[in-house]
């Protein structure tokens, strides 16, 4: 059985991202779901597609459903809500009073900590 590769994705669920390429370029949204096996993310109110469902025995009438489709993770960039800018991220190790150090993400452009 062949194992599927899991890609490292630079965004996590709950992050705000800005689309940097494609039809939705410039739009900002919140990451709803991360799909690491296909290196894609689903962003709230971005890449909405319409699906038509025909009527059948279970459903009396047809429906039109709007779905948020995944976009490739390379087409999004982390977005700062405070400064309204998109930026790459880095890791910063902070010394805390405890014996353990904590690793936090930060925006490289503004040096703001990502929460």
Automatic annotation (TrEMBL):
InterPro entries: KOW (IPR005824), Rib_uL2_dom2 (IPR014722), Ribosomal_uL24 (IPR003256), Ribosomal_uL24_C (IPR057264), Ribosomal_uL24_CS (IPR005825), Ribosomal_uL24_KOW (IPR041988), Translation_prot_SH3-like_sf (IPR008991). SUPFAM superfamilies: Translation proteins SH3-like domain. The keyword Ribonucleoprotein applies. One of its GO terms (biological process) is translation. The keyword Ribosomal protein applies. SMART domains: KOW (SM00739). Signal peptide: none annotated. Keywords: Plastid, Ribonucleoprotein, Ribosomal protein. One of its GO terms (cellular component) is ribosome. Residues 10-37 form the KOW domain. GO terms for molecular function: RNA binding; structural constituent of ribosome. HAMAP family: Ribosomal_uL24_B. Belongs to the universal ribosomal protein uL24 family. PANTHER family: MITOCHONDRIAL RIBOSOMAL PROTEIN L24. One of two assembly initiator proteins, it binds directly to the 5'-end of the 23S rRNA, where it nucleates assembly of the 50S subunit. This is Large ribosomal subunit protein uL24c. It comes from Hildenbrandia rivularis.
